[in-house]
Amino acid sequence: AGFHRLSDTHSDQREILTIISFCIEIFFAVDILVRFNTAVYLQQGKLMTDRMAIAKTYLRGWFFVDFISVFPFKARSPGTVAL
User: Fold this and answer.
1) Tens of pLDDT along 2-22?
2) Fewer CB atoms inside 10 A, N or C side of the chain?
3) How far apart, in Å, are the Cα atoms of 70 and each of 1, 47, 53, 63, 66?
4) What is the rounded distance in angstroms from the CA atom of residue 68 to the CA atom of residue 55?
5) pTM of the entire structure?
């Protein structure tokens, strides 16, 4: 009986971690969408509100890092199982 209880606990913990991981991925994906639409201050102190300019600035800056943080590498790797 103790073995089943331990197995159930492990399964529950894995499910909780899967849910947390999914929520974090969704948060970062939404962050990318928000960043494409968020005005930024230039070095001169001027507020940049042009969406195309904001997108270009983001793509040249932090976009790559943000994209890597949400890309599902485990799902794309052969022989691995994503959580």
Assistant:
1) 455 556 777 888 899 989 988
2) N
3) 40, 28, 23, 11, 7
4) 17
5) 0.65
